[in-house]
Model the fold of this input.
Amino acid sequence: MQATMIKIERNEKMEKAIARCKTNHPKVRRVDASTVKVYGHGGSYTVKFAEPRKGLRLASCTCQATGLCYHIPGAMAAPTVIAVAPALPVSTANERENACLLKPQPKGFIIDGWSL
Ligand SMILES: [Zn+2]
Done:
């Protein structure tokens, strides 16, 4: 099933999602340049980003939410450094252990130059 792509724009919905993200402070792990795994309370979700044309940024998430979920701003705040894939397969538990805990920074998250 193709996940719905949501347009990334700063609006009220995004503000709400960011607020939820700050409350839930999920763990995030970058998979590649356009994919981030987000570990929320209910499990792990994959957020994918796309930029079909300049200025139009889209994101999709594998969670149940039909609209903008907090995983997307969480994924946007993920470090841009791509984690080196481990040589050996790791269990999901280890994967979660090694994920980066997204905590509100003193200055807030920096997402796309937005200070949140
Ligand atoms: Zn989600």
